[in-house]
Design brief:
Elements: H1 2-26, E1 36-40, E2 49-54, E3 57-60, E4 62-63, E5 69-70, E6 79-84, E7 92-97, E8 103-107, E9 110-114, E10 139-142, E11 151-156, E12 174-179, H2 180-217, H3 224-241, H4 246-249, H5 257-274, H6 281-302, H7 311-340, H8 344-367, H9 372-388, H10 393-469, H11 474-486, H12 497-512, E13 516-522, H13 532-551, E14 557-565, E15 568-576, H14 590-603, E16 611-615, E17 619-627
Parallel strand pairs: 13-14
Antiparallel strand pairs: 1-12, 2-3, 2-6, 4-5, 6-11, 7-10, 7-12, 8-9, 8-11, 14-15, 15-17, 16-17
Helix pairs in contact: 2-3, 3-5, 5-6, 5-7, 6-7, 7-8, 7-10, 8-10, 10-11, 10-12, 10-13, 12-13, 13-14
Length: about 625
């Protein structure tokens, strides 16, 4: 009960720390509310005044109703557009979508930005030149905090071809006023939405590679973790390729990298589970090959290497969606069969998949009263894709389910490997300790036998003398010799070396506690249907319970009987117990109960009648029967 409460407290504190940690991380994936104003856009009357100014002589330009203005006096004349700043924002930012023009920006006649600082930057005295290149980004200007209520004026250059005397038109650049915090938060949110899943996948890749290295050190070389890591790598690359800034770092491609990496990731994961599918490996290999072929056809078709655009090319571009969906459905269905066949990986995978499915359904039920559109949208999309046989949303749902359940199975399998390794090390440590005790027991017994042998001639001579002179004392003297022989340490020597080590070690411990031991029969098969760890747990728990119980008895003793009968190995242990009145009988100690539970767990595989326990007020007997 105490251990249960400790586990509950550990889970409680873990959740208590994880919730605010997750909130702190994912908080930045949501951008602030965007407050922006399209100040000047094509074809809209937004309250701007467009004019030319020649040393104070202003001439208003006429709008053509489509975002252009007429009325320039000469070619290359600088135009101005002005507006009173009635909009109020925190951290005001001005964005001017200018390409090959130069601009200067004024606030109440004072210049706050210019592309040409060498010119006379006063309204009416500017002749701005054209750029000989195109800007990659718009001009972004931070306005002073006291901008509200002031007049914003933007000066813009015009080209030689834009002489406006007759029918020419000039187009002022589009202008946006926005909150800098909101814009920056949108960039942060976009980066966070991309990097958080990518970093998580990278951490999982490192975890899988660590498993691969650990298995190699443990002499269990297997490429399974590497193939799974490859599937996660494809998925991570697909997420990064969909980032807003991807094409700023890399050139454009003739195909959709995000979809291509996604289809490759499905193929790699199918290859990973194929290595576990012992009885159905041909089926798994077939669907895996089909997915890889369809992904390669998609790549060749989108690159226009295989086919030009047409109905067949459209089919090939949709093919990986169809094959991926049905491949995942097939391996999930087959996993149930492989679970029943006793493959632990698929047992963990299906259990995790069922848990995730149930959790997602509960999530949808909980969301239904608050976000009904979201819930109905999920089922509507699934139904529409079912009718059209072109799964996209359904495929991604199924993919997430299969990926997470496979990760859970890998993690649980790794935990079991570590636990088995720790158990193996503990068994080796116990075997070494018991082997040393067995060796010491053999040495002491040999020494005692040598001492008896050394004294045998003296005893015979003394008995000869006593027979002639004091025949009445012979019986007492013989009793003393018999007692000395009984005190010689018992030694187990059967055909099973592991059993010899375990029993001799515990017999030495019993002797050290003053418990008299007796070996009735001593025979065991060379090999038993138990691992060394199971045999060690079974025998050690039986003898530990017996030694602890016999140690409190008035006449402590321990009897062992091990023999073979009808293709079965029979091991019986009888020990004395402290005399307990039936009316005042104490419950067994926790250690005894725990040891007996382990014994029952090991013996359950052989049937209910293979473990026999008999107990009286002073004697306890346990017998285990193990078929060869």
């Amino acid at each position: 009960m105490k251990q249960l409460w400790k586990v509950i407290l550990a889970l409680f504190f873990s959740v208590l720390i994880c919730i605010p940690s997750a909130f702190a991380i994912f908080y930045y994936t949501q951008p602030m509310k965007d407050v922006s104003y399209e100040f000047f856009s094509l074809g809209e009357d937004t309250g701007w005044t467009v004019f030319t100014d020649e040393k104070g002589n202003q001439t208003h330009l006429a709008s053509d109703g489509y975002g252009g203005y007429l009325g320039l006096s000469y070619s290359g004349q600088t135009i101005y557009y002005s507006k009173n700043m009635t909009e109020k924002l925190d951290d005001p930012m001005l964005k001017i979508f200018v390409v090959n023009r130069t601009v200067s920006v004024f606030l109440d006649g004072n210049v706050i930005y210019t592309d040409c600082p060498e010119l006379d930057n006063r309204i009416g005295y500017l002749t701005l030149p054209m750029l000989d290149y195109d800007r990659a980004q718009p001009v972004t200007i931070s306005l002073p905090p006291d901008y509200h209520g002031k007049t914003l004026t933007i000066a813009q250059s015009t080209g030689d071809s834009e002489k406006q005397v007759d029918d020419g038109t000039v187009w002022p650049c589009e202008v946006m006023l926005y909150c800098g915090y909101a814009y920056e938060s949108s960039l942060i949110a976009s980066a966070a939405q991309t990097m958080l899943p990518a970093v998580l996948l990278f951490a999982l890749i490192l975890f899988l590679l660590a498993i691969f290295i650990w298995n190699t050190f443990e002499r269990m070389f297997s490429l399974k973790p590497v193939i799974f890591a490859l599937a996660l790598l494809f998925q991570m690359c697909g997420i990064l390729s969909r980032a807003d800034f991807f094409f700023e770092y890399f050139r454009s491609f003739p195909f959709d990298l995000g979809d291509l990496f996604f289809y490759f990731s499905i193929g790699a994961l199918l290859l990973f589970v194929t290595l576990y599918a012992s009885r159905l490996r041909l089926l798994f290999a077939a669907v895996t090959a089909l997915q890889w072929i369809s992904a390669l056809l998609y790549l060749l078709t989108q690159s226009e290497i295989l086919l030009e655009y047409g109905k067949l090319s459209v089919f090939f571009m949709k093919l990986p969606q169809i094959t991926g969906f049905f491949a995942l459905i097939t391996v999930l269905a087959a996993a149930f069969y492989l679970w029943k066949c006793g493959i632990r990986f698929f047992r963990h995978q299906i259990q995790a998949a069922l848990l995730l499915t149930g959790g997602y359904m509960l999530f949808l039920i909980a969301c239904a009263p608050f976000w009904p559109d979201y819930v109905s949208g999920v089922f509507t999309r699934i139904w529409q894709e079912t009718l059209s046989l072109l799964p996209d949303f359904s495929l991604r749902l199924l993919w997430n389910l299969y990926l997470i359940s496979s990760l859970a199975a890998v993690f649980l399998e790794f935990v079991e490997q570590i636990s088995a390794r720790r158990t193996e090390l503990a068994v080796l440590s116990t075997k070494n300790a018991l082997a040393m005790e067995s060796y010491e027991n053999l040495c002491l017994q040999s020494e005692e036998v040598m001492m008896l042998r050394h004294d045998t001639l003296k005893h015979y001579s003394l008995l000869r003398t006593m027979a002639n002179e004091k025949p009445g004392q012979i019986a007492g003297y013989l009793d003393d010799l018999i007692g000395q022989a009984e005190n010689v340490r018992s030694v187990i020597s059967s055909r099973n070396q592991i059993l010899n080590i375990l029993l001799n070690g515990k017999l030495s411990a019993a002797k050290a506690k003053g418990i008299r031991t007796e070996i009735i029969r001593c025979d065991a098969p060379k090999k038993l249907p138990l691992s060394d760890a199971e045999l060690c747990s079974l025998i050690v728990n039986i003898l530990d319970n017996a030694i602890n119980a016999a140690g409190g008895a008035q006449t402590p003793y321990l009897k062992l009987d091990l023999h073979c009968k009808d293709q079965h190995f029979v091991f019986s242990c009888i020990n004395s117990m402290p005399h307990i009145k039936t009316s005042n009988k104490k419950a067994p100690t926790p250690d005894h109960e725990y040891g007996l539970k382990i014994i029952r767990q090991i013996m359950n595989r052989f049937g209910d009648n293979m473990l026999l326990i008999e107990q009286s007020s002073t004697v306890y007997q346990i017998t285990v029967i193990i078929p060869f």
